[in-house]
Design brief:
549 residues; 47% helix; globular; binds 6-O-phosphono-beta-D-fructofuranose; gluconeogenesis; cytoplasm; Glucose-6-phosphate isomerase; glycolysis; glucose-6-phosphate isomerase activity
């Protein structure tokens, strides 16, 4: 892969064709695009698995979409996708295969890395996870004193936290309610303190999730949790085996920590951290929702993998979403992208996507080591929709910045809401109304027609023309969650491929880690840090004064 140096993106004729098209597009309004084309809503909609994507409220014509597809073709998106699925080492800076798709490949299929069929290994780990999850769920896994487990605490950070936490929240109606699940990530001792302060160590199980098992936050928290457990139980090291399991690629470090590798669930270096919650990193989730629902979720992922691999670009959800993002990011100077789910169960969805998208595509060096001359990954942000409406939607409607957004809706209320399910139409009416208001706004004639005083008219006018994709699913099932995540994973892939960046490394997080390690002794003991800049040095001095050191 990647033998020939690629023509720079901004030197491709397809790029220039899009720039010219953008000029011609000018301020064309969605009001006009809809007025001129009665079939637009139907034509610019696509069914992707169980997800319906309405992309008609985008500032695009058939010509725009054609030009974007030509850019994708010229950028080799499909070739890179196929290389990923074949297990080629497309993570060039780490020289690794990128095979999160193998994590959800049915057992009968084969995917080889260095000659070895990884699908068999994936399914062996899934079987081991299922055995363990069922034991905890049924109360057959007991703690050191013989009590059954009541609380599972996942200790991990980044991809070893955000995915399981997001999915646990999303699938709460499917969880075993008598078990409690908590997620600890922050090295701030307050996080672990609040998670365990009301727990009985005899009924608590820790899942230490870390791909590398060297991440300082996780190892620090896991070490403190072990201290809390042993002092709470008044027990020796032999109690650890019943209360700690690990998920990692690094068996050596796991056993160095004191966890029996019998109680370790393995995954592999060809799974990136932010692409890993469908691996053993999802162990706490599997305990929560059970192996069957976990497998349904994997099947949902797989369905979109197949769609991404096989659907033609014009009907391919990840291609469409990725290319629409390129259109705004690179030709409208949109700096950010909002993800606005209209489901309370998606409280952690955007936080999860932030890592997925921003750690993947927040790069400024291309795959051949040259600085990029074009914008890459957007700033991804958002919260569940109705809350956002009463906070930052003002800026979306009348601010000076263009913020393309995804509005995600689930047609059926979650199971078990009882009479509260009656509120669902109001929730969904809000979603549809926002898409409508953002797209079509309110003209000053409309405002005047309401008898508004002249001086008030500009304030009450909504320009509209703010693009959104509406994603609609019938129910928030494990399968639908898997489908949505795979859709976003592959969207991020498409964008990284067009920008010619390595979406699978994360060198940008390294410097801060190294500097923090170097600074800690200065904070604790006043140790000298050679070459420390004046600002940081003064902050360290003030910190020490505040701490009375
Ligand atoms: O620091 C970034 C990162 O490497 C993420 O990519 C990863 O998800 C997270 O840290 C946690 O890493 P680990 O699972 O190895 O503890």
């Amino acid at each position: 892969m990647n033998a020939a140096r690629r023509t720079r993106l901004d030197q491709l004729p397809e790029w220039h064709a899009l720039a010219k098209h953008r000029e011609e597009f000018g301020d064309t309004h969605l009001r006009t695009l809809f007025a001129d084309d009665s079939g637009r809503a139907e034509r610019f909609g696509v069914q992707v698995g169980d997800l319906y994507l309405d992309y008609s409220k985008h500032l695009v014509t058939d010509e725009t979409l054609r030009l974007l597809r030509e850019l994708a073709a010229a950028s080799g998106v499909a070739e890179l996708r196929d290389a990923m699925f074949r297990g080629e080492r497309i993570n060039v800076t780490e020289d690794r295969a990128v095979l999160h798709t193998a994590l959800r490949t049915p057992a009968a299929a084969h995917v080889r890395v260095d000659g070895e069929d990884v699908v068999q290994r994936v399914h062996a780990v899934l079987a081991k996870m299922a055995l363990f999850a069922n034991k905890v769920r049924d109360g057959h896994w007991t703690g050191h004193t013989g009590k059954r487990i009541r609380t599972v605490v996942n200790i991990g950070i980044g991809g070893s936290d955000l995915g399981p936490k997001m999915a646990y929240e999303a699938l709460r109606p499917y969880t075993r309610r008598e078990l409690d699940f908590r997620f600890v990530s922050n090295v701030d001792g307050a996080d672990l303190h609040e998670a365990v302060r009301d727990l009985d160590p005899a009924e608590t199980l820790f899942v230490v999730a870390s791909k590398t098992f060297t991440t300082i936050e996780t190892i620090t928290n896991a070490t403190a949790a072990r201290r809390w457990l042993l002092s709470g139980l008044g027990a020796g090291e032999d109690a650890v085996a019943k209360h700690f399991v690990a998920v990692s690629t690094n068996a050596g470090k796991v056993s160095e920590f004191g966890i029996d590798t019998e109680n370790m669930f393995e995954f592999w270096d060809w799974v990136g951290g932010r692409y890993s919650f469908d691996s053993a990193i999802g162990l706490s989730l599997m305990v929560a929702i059970g192996p069957d629902h976990f497998n349904e979720m994997l099947a949902g992922f797989h369905c979109i993998d197949e769609h991404f691999r096989e659907a033609p670009p014009e009907a391919n959800g990840p291609f469409l979403m990725g290319l629409l993002g390129i259109w705004y990011n690179n030709f409208f100077d949109a700096q950010s992208h909002a993800v606005l789910p209209y489901s309370h169960y998606f409280s952690q969805f955007t936080a999860y996507l932030q890592q997925l998208d921003m750690e993947s595509d927040g790069k400024s060096t291309d795959r051949e080591g040259r600085p990029v001359n074009w914008q890459t990954g957007p700033i991804v942000w958002g919260t569940p929709g109705t809350n956002g409406q009463h906070a930052y939607y003002q800026l979306l409607h009348q601010g000076t910045k263009m913020v393309p957004a995804d509005l995600i809706g689930i047609a059926r209320p979650a199971p078990g809401l009882g009479e509260l399910a009656g509120q669902h139409d109001l929730l969904m009416a809000n979603l549809f109304a926002q898409g409508q208001a953002l797209a079509f706004g309110k003209t000053d004639e409309e405002v005047r027609a309401e008898g508004v005083a002249d001086e008030q008219v500009p304030h009450r006018t909504f320009p509209g023309n703010r693009p959104t994709t509406t994603i609609l699913a019938e129910e928030l099932t494990p399968s639908v969650l898997g489908q949505l995540i795979a859709l976003y994973e592959h969207k991020v892939f498409v964008q990284g491929a067009v920008w010619n960046i390595d979406s699978f490394d994360q060198w940008g997080v390294e410097l801060g880690k190294v500097l923090a390690k170097r600074l800690e002794p200065a904070l604790t003991d006043g140790a000298d840090v050679p070459g420390l800049d004046a600002s940081t040095s003064s902050l360290v001095r003030r910190y020490r004064e505040l701490r009375g050191r």
